[in-house]
Design goal:
The protein is α+β, with helices and mostly antiparallel strands. Helix content is about 30%, strand content about 20%.
């Protein structure tokens, strides 16, 4: 069916027929799935309706309904973004049933997949064909469309964000038209969409560059913080994929260096960290430290000790790239120009030292993750125009259900307690901003258009494309209206979808 024929036929369907056609893919209001909560359990919303389409025609029907009713449509995958990027009071379109690998072109090193496929599933499908993604972030339970539209990154100073491996997209636009875009065709739409926050259109398919399946040899070792910073350039360039995990309380950096290898698989890991001790004991101590603040420093040193031994592992690439997130968490991550890394780390170190020396100071959890990426030309990519250092901080939210039930007969949150994080993140972000920081788009931040415009030279080109392809704002949820178009008021407040009461 051609696009024009499809639009003509859709317009001839009555509203009542449209509702009937969509009824089978609407999540019932009585279902617990009728409410959306992100993975970190930090933001939630109750959309007007949640649709779970399994075909592109059903996606067209959803957009037709939204056009007639003047509704917002927000696409969401598994909801891994720690912010309210996926939240909406309009229609939500879950892409998790649009999850197939459609084409494999091993000889030309690219594949075409539906945007709703998770990276975990994609890894498995690619392995069947002797292929692999070129670079992967720390987790793989995200959808392909989600990582593309937020310019999600892995690590490697000569490797761009994952969106740089995208060769083409098929989009369903707000007017119902189906458009293919790439660097050669509809190039402005393409460059806007590969870090488009889901606001240019509904991504149906992704054409992704891949490479023959490979193994990585990873060496992990712990060194002192100041030694790491002094040797930063040599460490970062010594291997293809380098990242650091910083344990501020212990003043140590866990250095991970990984390179492609043909050596046989030899899985490894820290037994203490991955055992009952590493998971449940640390989790229990974090719970206790919620009430006994000084304990946090001991826990940080204890966790650093658990992973202090040198470890060498060889495994399939994605298994080395990925790491366990362990517990639900508040998190923020910022990208700074690589040349500012040493100065920024020193400033963060001095700040945290002051916090630790203050009996009433803030107590961050661990580790602080430090990663790297190459420069790119994607309009809203935090790596636009600069080699980049990414620095992310976390505050774990919860402790295990069995711990809580053992310590308290009832609890307002049956899977855990809130932790203070707002002031910690504000002070962290202030330092990153002084060093030219740009926020990770999937994570909560405070920047608005007037500041973003200064950070992104092509910001106005991005909004121009949005106005062109979606003049009525069908794909603009509260997050996009707030951060990209500067809307204010209670409906657009950055905590409008916050799951719990404000934290400290």
């Amino acid at each position: 069916m051609s696009t024009s024929t499809s639009k003509l036929q859709l317009s001839s369907i009555s509203l009542a027929q449209l509702y009937d056609l969509l009824q089978p893919i609407i999540v019932p209001n009585t279902s617990p799935n009728a409410k959306f909560t992100n993975w970190g359990q930090t933001f939630s919303c109750t959309p007007l309706a949640i649709f779970e389409p399994a075909t592109e025609l059903q996606c067209e029907l959803i957009l037709e309904l939204a056009r007639r009713e003047g509704r917002v449509v927000r696409a969401v995958g598994v909801g891994h973004s720690p912010s309210d990027l996926a939240c909406t009071t309009g229609y939500m379109l879950r892409t998790t049933k649009l999850d197939r690998l459609l084409e494999v072109h091993a000889d030309k090193r690219y594949i075409i997949a539906q945007a709703g496929i998770t990276l975990d599933a994609l890894h498995a499908e690619l392995a069947k064909h002797g292929l692999a993604m070129i670079n992967v972030g720390s987790i793989s339970d995200q959808t392909l469309g989600g990582i593309v539209t937020t310019a999600t990154h892995g690590t490697g100073i000569n490797y761009g964000v994952i969106s740089t491996h995208v060769m083409g997209l098929t989009l369903l636009l707000a007017d119902g038209s189906r458009v293919f875009c790439s660097r050669q065709e509809n190039s402005d739409l393409f460059t806007a969409s590969i870090c488009g926050l889901g606001s240019t259109g509904l991504i149906l398919t992704v054409t992704l560059e891949v490479e023959p399946a490979f193994r990585l040899k990873e060496i992990q070792q712990t060194i002192k913080f100041h030694e790491c910073v002094r040797s930063l350039d040599s460490l970062v360039t010594a291997s293809e994929h380098v990242r650091f995990w910083w344990f501020p309380a212990a003043d140590t950096m866990r250095v991970s260096s990984a390179d492609r290898t043909v050596e046989p698989i030899k899985p490894a890991g820290s037994w203490l960290w991955h055992s009952l001790i590493g998971f449940h004991v640390v989790q229990f101590l974090l719970f206790v430290a919620r009430f006994i603040l000084p304990l946090n420093i001991f826990i940080g040193r204890f966790a650093s000790w658990l992973v202090s031994t040198k470890v060498i592992a060889i495994d399939d690439s994605f298994r080395i790239f990925n790491m366990e997130c362990r517990y639900p968490q508040h998190t923020t991550e910022w990208a700074i120009p690589y040349q500012n890394t040493k100065a920024c780390l020193h400033d963060l170190h001095d700040w945290l030292k002051r916090e630790f020396s203050d009996p009433n100071g803030l107590r961050p959890h661990f580790p602080i993750e430090v990663r790297f990426s190459d420069s790119d030309d994607i309009w809203l990519s935090p790596s636009n125009g600069q080699k980049t250092c990414w620095i992310g901080i976390v505050q774990f939210k919860y402790v295990s259900c069995f711990i809580i039930s053992a310590l308290a007969e009832t609890c307002r949150r049956p899977y855990g307690f809130e932790v203070p994080y707002k002031l910690l993140f504000e002070r962290f972000e202030a330092i990153l901003c002084r060093h030219g920081g740009r926020p990770h788009w999937a994570k909560a931040h405070h920047l608005r258009p007037e500041k973003l415009r200064k950070l992104y030279p092509r910001f106005d080109d991005f909004t121009r494309v949005l106005e062109s392809v979606d003049p009525r704002g069908m794909f603009r949820n509260e997050y996009v209206e707030r951060h990209i178009f500067g809307k204010t008021g209670p409906a657009y407040h950055n905590r409008v979808f916050k799951r719990y009461a404000p934290s400290q």
